[in-house]
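Task card 7
Instruction: Convert sequence to structure tokens.
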Amino acid sequence: MLTVTLARNAMATRFEIVLHGEDAARLRAAGEEALDEIERLESQLSLYRPSSEIARLNAGGFAHPLKLSPAVFRLLQQAQTLSRETAGAFDITVAPLVRCWGFMGGGGRKPSPAELDAARAQVGLEHLRLDESDFTAGFDVAGAMLDLGAIGKGYAIDCAVEILREAGVTSALVHGGSSTVYGLGQPPGGAAWQIAIQNPPGVDLGAVVGLRDSALSVSAGWGKSFTLDGKTYGHVFDPRLGRPVEGCLVAAVGLPSATETDAFSTALLVDGLARHDQIASLRPGMATLAVSPGHEVKSRLIL
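Output:
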């Protein structure tokens, strides 16, 4: 059994693929094609690339609807569905809040009440108008913007895994940074890919998840942040309240779909332990973990 490892920087993180099989050349070719697909998707979905479909929608979607590729349109439809299922805890229209709090290309700042009110008026998936008859999208309020950061990596990994499957790869691990990982098949000599969840500061979880044709996403509140008057403000927001998440340190979700784990882990981080059981019930067999700032833990099928 041969092993091929490939990596590439995309979507502001490092994607890595570990492939196992009998033909190194075929494994490498499949892995390179999968990484090419991730780069192609970044060119469609990144709000920081002016030529991307999402950036062009953000720039002109209030003035007139923009025609999207069918795949991007379907992803936005899926995001709307996931937002409804999570009662708005997951919301790709959160970009005005990211900008308002200074995290869009910056290190963060606390906005004034007037700035925050203006940003909150631009957030909410009810402002995104999708027309399936011609695959167009637009906004009904000026300043509305999409940020697919809480679903794009998972979606890209799902697309990459599909390419690996079509190429005949039966054993591979695909991960994007420390946020989402997919275990295709099983590793040599093991029943499942064993993935450890990073401990939040001051907590020793010892949580390890076995993945076999399934994904795990981890969302954390201790990443990009700033401190003001002794209080730390992170870059993950409750889109309904307009402020950074405070009730959860880390959230993890395991499911067959990396697109869904990416979105649901964000929703679980936003809602915290209070709505853990409701989110965990959204899909049969969903594995979950949530840790509060006081180190209280709620889990299903992980610990």
